Amino acid sequence: MTENKKAATPGWRKLLGPGLVAGAADDDPSGVATYSQAGAAFGYGLLWAVMLTTPLMLAVQLVSARIGRITGAGVVANARAHLPRGVAHGLVVLMLVANVANIAADLAAMGEALKLILQGSQRNYALAFGAAGLLAQILVPYRRYAGFLRWSTLALFTYVAAAFAVEIDWRAALRGALLPNVGWGREAMMMVVAVLGTTISPYLFVWQAAQEIEEMRVGHKGPLRDASARRELRRLRVDTGVGVILSNLVAFFIMLTTAATLNAHGVSGIDTAAQAAEALRPLAGDFAFFLFALGIIGTGLLAIPVLAGSAAYAVSDVIGGKFSLEAPFARAPGFYGIVIIATLLGAALDFTSIPPMQMLLWTAVLNGIIAPPFLFAMMIVSGNARAMGAHVSPKWLSALGWIATAAMTFAVLLLAISTFGFDL
Fold first, then answer.
1. Alpha-carbon distance 410 to 342, whole Å?
2. pTM of the full predicted structure?
3. What is the pLDDT along the chain (424 residues), one digit of tens a residue?
4. DSSP characters for 307-341?
5. CA distance 97 to 76
6. Which residues contact 390 (CB under 8 A, 6 or more apart)?
7. 137-165: burial string, b at 16+ Cβ within 10 Å, e else
8. Burial class of 341 by CB neighbour count within 10 A (0 to 12, 13 to 18, 19+)
9. Burial 359-393, CB ≥16 within 10 A → b, else e
10. Euclidean distance between CA atoms 328 and 139, whole angstroms
11. Backbone angles phi, psi at 35, to 5 degrees
């Protein structure tokens, strides 16, 4: 009877999980700052980049979800098993550097946002947020923690609400969404790579594959080894699709809001995500300011655990461990040790003299630079019958995944060319 009741309980919680959370975590404070800076600096001119990344992000996140669910092993574990020795270690080192920097940037932005609302010390608030994220991951079992992460995605709708509190030139926005309308100098290319990097980020690949494995453990399911798994593969598509569409819709509205307010009133440079919120106050009113600042805090509470957790999953994968967030601290001290160290290192960076906006923007650029090697590894694994069995990526998914890989690589190359003084 219990089994029947469980099976008869449909609902969004059965369909939406790792994909929804991964998509929402993509709009972390670093992402908010990047989209805000893009809107402030280029107006509606970079909206096309968000439109471009939607199908590409859908492809790569679905590939990562399929790798986790079909093989029962993470992205890095599969790279370790099926690619030349050293590839997995290199991927993990790159991701750890990017994740620690991302945690630092997100904590700083959250602290500044709360300071705008309550006054007080930005650094103390940042430390408090870091401690809260640590305690949640260490003390709360995965099955309960996953529910909290799902509900946290509602914080993203504050940015949609903020957009409707300002006046938008929809004709110009439509042009910007459909046609590239920026120069191709170093600043523009850096922003394009930052937008791509904060949208298609390695930590999201690792996290979604790992969460599929966590869901398997909680539900006592095995890897999808046979060909008859249509229902489960459909769930992956729905879950990932909803997460990606939500993520990019929010990114679009953040860029739209700052283009319509900051750029339209001559504010082309901002130093932090919190400053973007503060700049909205005189232009769009207290309501838009409050929603924007609250969104930074809400998305940060979602993203910090994802960043620290994905670092721990990656290290676990590379050493061949089987640790998870469902295990208590006493049974997985090494796993939780990585979570703690990553969070503490990120918090420590907030006490350096690195300007917050530089940290936020360069974090997004760094994610964009390290994404291509991750994508190459994932696409090779997803097309490997020895790894995926009967579920190698279908042709449409493989094509989209390789297009995403090529696009990210091309953008990084253009950034490198423009950085070394060649005009494009």
1. 30
2. 0.85
3. 344 444 444 455 566 778 888 877 777 887 888 888 888 888 898 899 889 889 999 999 999 999 999 998 899 999 999 998 788 899 999 889 889 988 888 888 888 888 888 888 888 888 898 888 888 778 877 667 666 666 666 666 777 777 777 788 889 889 988 887 766 677 777 888 888 888 888 989 999 999 888 888 777 677 876 666 788 888 889 999 998 998 898 889 888 888 888 888 787 777 666 667 776 676 667 777 777 778 788 888 878 888 888 999 999 888 877 777 777 788 888 888 988 999 898 888 877 777 666 676 677 788 888 899 999 999 999 999 998 988 899 999 999 999 999 998 988 888 788 766 555 5
4. HHHHHHHHHHHHHT----TTS-GGG-HHHHHHHHH
5. 16
6. 225, 226, 227
7. beeeebeebbeebbebbebbbbbbbbbeb
8. middle
9. bbbbbbbbbbbbbbbbbbbbbebbbbeebbeebbb
10. 8
11. -65, -35
Q: What are the tokens at 60?
A: 């790569």
DSSP annotation of 265 reads: G
